[in-house]
Sequence to fold (264 residues):
Amino acid sequence: MSVMIACVDAFTARPFGGNPAGVCLLEGNRGDDWMQQVATEMNLAETAFVSQGPGDGFALKWFTPTTEMELCGHATLAAAHLLWTEGRVPSSQTIGFDTKSGRLTASRRGEFIELDFPAEPATELEPPGDIADVLGESPVFFGRNRMDYIAELSSEASVRSLRPNLAAITGYDARGIIVTSRSAAAEFDFVSRFFAPRVGIPEDPVTGSAHCCLGPFWAHRLHKPDLVGYQASPRGGVVRVSNNGHRVLLGGTAVTIHRGTLLC
Fold:
């Protein structure tokens, strides 16, 4: 059985920016072992597997090269982009995805794709004793949500120049660590980076699910619900975040880079 597969750059308007995601559009059921092998073969931060759901939406799963994920923003955006551009769903129709994190939706808002995701706020806690060595400085704030740690650093320069101890982060009991600060540029409200070597992603280029935490975090500090974040990885990407109580709306654009057929 052949399967359509594509690579889509998410949270970017230009090719080779943002975060590349694999997207498989499945015609039937495939097992998790097969999906994991495909994701390992693709060797991207995440590969999304989309199949027609039993109701009015699609079943959606995400895998890194080493494990299945509970929530992923950029691969969801990539999946919605491909369903629309390939004509699988009318461009005016909102897409519903049934996932391990519940029902997620994707809608077109002008040039942007808007994802409706759960908010994942962080609770402050005492940082690990080695955190200053891991990050190069003691964080202004340290906390975690159900998935990740978050560390606020003193400046954008600190975030951009960070070369963390990835071996130490691998030992932390979380998916990864979000590192953030206020932006030095007026066009953005905050900057961030995300490191998740424990799940096979040393540094993620642009992380939608991290913005489910960053949105509430910066909305509280900046006293504004609508924010624009820049993830300052080497590829870089822009994520718009609107806070709405227990939900966040993540906005971005995407570009298909290549598409083909899996023969196995």
DSSP finds six helices and 18 strands in the chain.
